[in-house]
Amino acid sequence: MDHFHYRDGELHVEDVPVRVIAEAVGTPVYIYSRGTFARHAQVFREGLEQAGDVHLAYAIKANPNLAVLRVLANEGYGADVVSGGEMRRAIAAGMPPADIVFSGVGKTEDELVAALEAGIGQFNLELEEEGHVLARLAAERGLTAPAVLRVNPDVDAGTHAKISTGKAENKFGVAISDAAGIFARLSGLAGLNLRGVAIHIGSQLQSLAPLERAYARVGELVAELRGAGHTITHVDLGGGLGVPYRHGDVFPTPAELGAMVARVTKDWGVTLMFEPGRVIAGNAGVLATKVIWVKPGVGDPWVIVDAAMNDLARPALYDAFHDFAAVRPNGERMTANIAGPVCESGDTFAMHREIDAVASGDLAVFRTAGAYGATMASTYNSRALVPEVLVDGDRFAVVADRIDPGTIMAAERVPDWL
Ligand code: LLP
What we know:
Lyase, Ornithine Decarboxylase, Chain A, domain 1, EC 4.1.1.20, 2 domains, binds ligand LLP
């Protein structure tokens, strides 16, 4: 459920017309619903709590805006971070360092030190050498780093190849068959408390079956590690639950995930951790845009909008589908291609799609843009970085400014020898 709906013939976010925000802030602009973020966070928690003692670490990469993080901190969420920058955001937004998990296949020593000094709650190790380095850095500071080992369960998540992470050929984690040996070598080290395992097999999962297969393999590994004398208290089951981008698509609910987790993990006796991103953020945001032209094409007309691949990269990167809807639909439909102003043909949001009829000057939105939207934006073609707005009931605030090309240019230098 979300808080994006038509009232008096125009699209509102909670109680604010999209038109009002577009007039105040300009377009393109990301618009988020506080109530939707909070509700998704609550529904996920309620769904997973049936599995017992759970720790929820929102995957910041999905939407790292500070105001969004504050909403989730208020819901009791910690954070899954993958860089020093994300860690700084989580702490700045008020998330306790103890509730932060640090994932990522290429953490630098500087990042590990910053995380140790901040006192974060858990390091998810991606390879054996990282464990040795972390142990040394912690011991040098008189600290003990809580850590788990990320394993690669070699499961096909059944999602887009670019967002699959749990197949043997992916760069993530260590092979499950190597885990026991790595535990044996790392667990005695001063400075390291290797207390469990982690997995994450991919994103936008449409079925629970691959997750269940992966979790079952983790269960076998936990038993094997305990059999070898290791104390296992934490298992991080990652994120990955998908969301419907197309009207009518059906996805597993957090309650269904929770029921499966409860069944598969009932004898594990550990604290379970989850790293949901998209399921919290995806349907809590839209990208509002204005139609610049409707241009004749060879077949369908081209609807040229003022948002582009630099603002919302998912269609260009993954051929992703984002629903397009007029802010004030007139009841008519048209079949069109939708594209942005960027100078490459990849800057296309949809081809031969039936949409609300629109004309030059009309406002529209790309839906389900709350996750992996603004966070993946760039300034390609010297376009501005898109601003973000958070709505709460009948009020709204700009929570990220539009960064115009002048600001970007101010950080560039022409050396005096040119
Ligand atoms: N934990 C780890 C270790 C991850 O790598 C990810 C996502 C998550 C949690 C959160 O997954 P989620 O619940 O959001 O599925 N840019 C792509 C998605 C990349 C996902 C990367 N990892 C997209 O726009 O579809």
